[in-house]
Design brief:
This protein is an alpha/beta fold. It contains 2 helices and 8 strands. Strand 7 and strand 8 form a beta hairpin.
Length: 126
């Protein structure tokens, strides 16, 4: 029934302008505003994600976007150079190194936050 529906995902933010700047300028994704002011973020796959404002926003309790990359360390270096903090977990269970990369517990992965506090990741392409 829904196999051909152009489904999309969405997440809340507390500041659309800050989200636009982060996703467009910092991460380099295509971002457009619609007639309601929502953000349409186009991912490298061509899929689109909707970011919408929410009063009293609280960050999601899970990773909202995962970006597979060939070289996690290079991606982390580039994110860090753009002011993005990747060392966001102090929990030893994640086993992150000084750059915030978790290695050897599945694919290499590093997590970071958007301006609304939502968690994103870069992880090794499998």
């Amino acid at each position: 029934m829904l196999a051909h529906s152009p489904a999309f995902s969405g997440f809340a933010v507390d500041d659309l302008d800050a989200a636009h700047e982060f996703y467009a300028d910092t991460l380099g994704l295509a971002v457009a505003h619609d007639e309601m002011g929502f953000l349409h973020i186009t991912l490298g796959s061509g899929a689109e994600v909707l970011a919408y404002p929410k009063d009293g926003h609280e960050p999601a309790g899970f990773t909202i976007l995962n970006f597979p990359v060939d070289d996690v360390e290079a991606a982390v270096d580039e994110l860090n150079a753009r002011g993005v903090v990747t060392k966001i977990y102090a929990d030893p269970d994640f086993g992150t190194d000084a750059k915030g990369i978790s290695r050897g517990q599945g694919p290499d992965i590093a997590w970071f936050r958007d301006p609304a506090g939502n968690v994103l990741s870069v992880l090794k392409t499998i």
